[in-house]
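fyi for ur records
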Amino acid sequence: MYLYIIFSSLFNSILIGLFGKFLGRQAVIYISLLTLISGFMCAVIILYEILLNNNILVITLYNLLIISEIKIDIGFLFDSLTSIMLLVVLSISTLVHIFTAGYMSHDPFIVRFYTFLGFFTFFMIILVTADNFLQLFVGWEGVGVCSYLLINFWYNRIAANKAAIKAMLMNRIADVFFIFGIVLILYYFKTLNYLLVFSLMDYIQEYYIFILFWNIKIVDLIVFFLFLGAIGKSAQIGLHTWLPDAMEGPTPVSSLLHAATMVTAGVFLLVRCSFIFEKSENILFLVILFGSITALFSAIVATYQYDIKKIIAYSTCSQLGYMFFSSGLSNYNITLFHLFNHAFFKALLFLGAGSIISSLLDEQDMRKMGSLVYKMPFTYLSIVIGSLAILGFPFLAGFYSKDLLLEATFISYSLDSIFIYTMGVLTAFFTAMYSMKLLFFVFIVKTNIYKNNIIIQEFNFFILIPLFILSILSIFVGFLFSDIFVGIGSDYFNNSIYIKYEHFNNMEIEFISPFFKNLPFILTFFGLLLSYFFFYIFNISNKQLNFLNFWIKKRLYEIFFNAGFFNFFYNRIYIYIFNLFYKINVKYIEKGFFEIFGPIGLYLFFRDLSYKARFISPYFVNISLFLIYFNLILILYFLILSNIFIIKSVYFLLFFYYLIIYK
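which gave:
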């Protein structure tokens, strides 16, 4: 069963890729659904055997590499963290496969799409079940390759080409540092196995390396490189620009890769390596800083967007920022809880957006929508549930993890906890703003759709069934699993998560002030009210308070609508670097150094030298022959008797020089 859940998606993808055109569209869909549903059922059984019974299982298939003291195996680790991640990956993947059957029913290349989806699911399972860093990196790179293929699925679109290349390049930048971290672990520990590395961390606590006049702890350096790898995959500030552009792919891709699974790989790395991160206070502060800035910045940018998928994409960046700074504060169990809940309500929002886009003939601009509540009531109800869940509305999934995350931030034993808490509650405020903006523009305000141009229908059961299941999960999953993740006395994750005793503060959450407990909800309500005025009232009567509306938006509109001009600066930097390298490489190296001192330069030099020597040398045959023989005798003499390399080289050059002169 354990190996079936790992390799079933691989065999399914190979079967579909090789024989899909012979099996037919319907057979491919049902084979994929059967494989994913059976895998999900196995994940439920694994959850019971591993998590609820507090077990751990290690499966070693074979030895990949044995060199002296180094031994690397191909193996799989099934612990509490793995069982939860398998449930998330396979449940979301199964629902996305069902949704794809309806969303892309008219696409002629649906067989290829299901092949890529299957490969992505396989590599994601490899990533979460790996028992060593090398195997983790295989899954890490595998989902990166599959994301390139899926974002660029409609390869005849230039925007999709650029978005796929951008996602690949931005992730490669971070992956280079991730490789550095893996190499350091291999060098100092002589193994890449999780259990061995985690158990030996204390023994290299005082090891230092001298770099640029600084003594740096080996632990800090390893954690720093792992953190940089997580930044790229989870789209934190600086390397986040690929995630919104990745919305050029089909909506099922957006839901599977960039909401529930792939982008959470960086958060998974932080939680999996909690045994390492807890040894470095400096890097934990960096995690807090990057996460808090990403959370607030992405929420503000989402408020100023009008592309329905980009709003949800920046929302994903914002929620990942929550998870990062929660991990930096050593609240790994709360981070995992929010990751678990976020997967369901964010997939619900993406699939709901896909239902709207498919009904409006691939229209994504919210300003061209409106009044869809009458035509698409089920989708409206689904997006309302997903939006309320992400807001932390009482008794929905986000309420049990998001508010708890902010409370744990407030009572954290650090000087910067108040600042981070302020950033978190401001993020909750802007989350309410963009969530209600999406609802008002798409469903409530007066429509901009011409009735004669489009027929809106909501009848495809392949689209409605995943929305219904995710709506139910977004309501109840937080309540059902809260005691497992954050219950007082819960020990389900003791074998997979390590929290230093100085950072353990779950008990203090019960004694926090009621004002600070309710502050996120108060600001969320205020954000809803402000969003109602800005995006609904002002749209109805735009003459009232229009100057105030314009003045507030005008100051910040350009900055946040263009996402802080990150793409602009990156383009300018790349263009400057490419121009600099062009001038250095082409003008000064290729056309300068290589042409003067390379083969062409040497040829021209000796050719000119031979022309000049012909005027010096006499034109009598006997004298010329005498000079040739005399020089040959000298060359042979020095070649035989001299052991000095330089003299030999000089006489070789003279020999060829005379050959050129008297050719």
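The chain has a mean pLDDT of 82. thats all i got for now
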